[in-house]
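Notebook B, p. 112. Complex prediction, attempt 2.
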Amino acid sequence: MTAEDELVGTFEQRAHVQLEHPQVGRNIGAAMDMILGVRAGVFQGADVEAMRAAGEAIRAHTVANLDGYLDTWASNAEARGTKVFFADTGGEAVEYVSRVLRDRGARLVVKGKSMASEEIGLTPALEREGMEVVETDLGEYIVQIGHEPPSHIIVPAIHHDRQEIRDLFNRVHGTDLPDEPARITRFAREHLRTKFLSADAGITGVNFAIAETGSISIVTNEGNGRMSSSMPPVHIALMGMERILPSFRELTVMLPLLTASATGQRVSTYFNVITGPRRPEDPDGPDELHVVVIDNGRSAILPTEFRSILHCIRCGACLNVCPVFRHVGGHAYGSVYGGPIGAVLTPLLQGFERAGDLPHASSLCGACTEICPVNIPLHEHLLGLRREVARVRAPWAERATFGWWSRLWANARRYRFFIGVSRMAQRPFARRGRIGRAPWPFSRWTRGRDLPGVALETFREGWRRREGGT
Ligand code: SF4
């Protein structure tokens, strides 16, 4: 399933499907609380605001000078033997990766976690070419054998509990595993090890690229990124074009921000820095290293008011605190990027026609903005996108209604008249200042919440009454 295939129906329709399975919300909520608790512990005593400000400054500077840093990184990477390919579109990236693998006669490909690969629909494309592609991150492996997309950018199978995962493994592998995480994990590890040992190529994502040395870095907790990148003879890394840092100095700031925000760790279990393919004196490593730098709509965001969304380091913290995400889970967003980051990024990458309803998948509580380690004003972007979508996509009748309303309220006499009429019209429906069930066309609003009634007295009327004693 590609990111495009996933955008079937509207957010509302997909959310209703998810809400029919309350277990999903319970599983996600419990896991998110656990992650947030650990995160709070790791940040205790640290000057979090200073760290966030430093992270924001680094990302803002890098994205503002993106072309220069990408050029520096690419020439340093090529000088160390890395083959660099800049893909304008997801299709170009898929075509390049397919060609490299076809030319090497690859049949079995092991894959580390990569949201960029999910974004461009790489796995299904390679499978259509007859290759076996095996996800090696445990969460990604679970959703792969369950034939579903990831539901969270850091913990892809978070919507499942251990019993569901046990049943899935037993069904797919014909085993009789208990619902003990250690036993399930050991089985997965043994199964995946045979794949690592016989793979023709490995594909991974990139957490940060470092311009000064032409390196890429990969953060994992399971060691699968290291094995996917070092055991097969060919390593292909996929990277969104914004995932670059000037030097290792900036990496020392961004790495702890990423690991603490993502999983509540001071540092991840594994952290790889890769600078070129294996040299003759190296004991191991791939003979070929390719890095595919993916634009796929990102450069169109650069000159807009939404540019800071490219500062994102994909930590997933905004998903963990989002009340909407916690209820409906990632699948409701119909894209690989769920939660607040998805509600902003997906419409910008895929267009308002396909994903213009996502900015409304938010209560605008601002929790996402408060937790973002690089201070991206997510709720302001959501509001800005709502305005943009309304300007571009709102039906004629809606635009006419709001235009008429705005003209009506721009005049004090007309406004007062409108308020008076509304007060009378609401009488059959209002109880204690709230309207629980409004008539059409407002009934869709009151299906999910109360509508505040028009106040029985305006501020001016109340003021006059006090002053005049009437
Ligand atoms: S928007 Fe901020 S909080 Fe959300 S994933 Fe990106 S960096 Fe993390």
